[in-house]
Amino acid sequence: MADTLFAPDESAMHAIGAALAARIRPGDVIGLSGGLGAGKTTLTRGLLSALGLAGEAPSPSFAIVQPYDPPLVRMPVAHVDLYRIDEPEDVEELGLDEYLEDGALVIEWPGRMGNRIWPDALLLDIAVEPDGARRLTATVPFAWRDRWPPL
Description:
The protein is of the alpha/beta class. Helices cover 18% and strands 25% of the residues. Strands 1-7-6-2-5-4-3 form a seven-stranded mixed β-sheet. The radius of gyration is 14 Å and the shape is globular. One of its GO terms (molecular function) is ATP binding.
């Protein structure tokens, strides 16, 4: 199932992330695709803020994996940025499956994983419209059907 959401501005992207936080469960994976500056990190910041993170979450561009654990957030979440990953095989070294035991993953640039993305991942492709708004096209797996759309 595919669906589309629109975010006219940065605060709307933040709100979509917050809405996803109300629906995310341990074992979930959210994959965020889109060009540089599309709003992947903004959406993730909205999610983390709604999970209780005080302050602004840094982009994990250089760390690659930025974990957040209680008491900073109500459930463990790892924010992953695969932009600097060259080969899908390199993702295995990150140990991402371990985060799914009791938490969730938000992965920017999931296409860098090749075919290694989890089949139940919610995939959001973010495109910038000519007016600056964002169009989010969701690929909604069965595991998310009762939780979509988030707004």
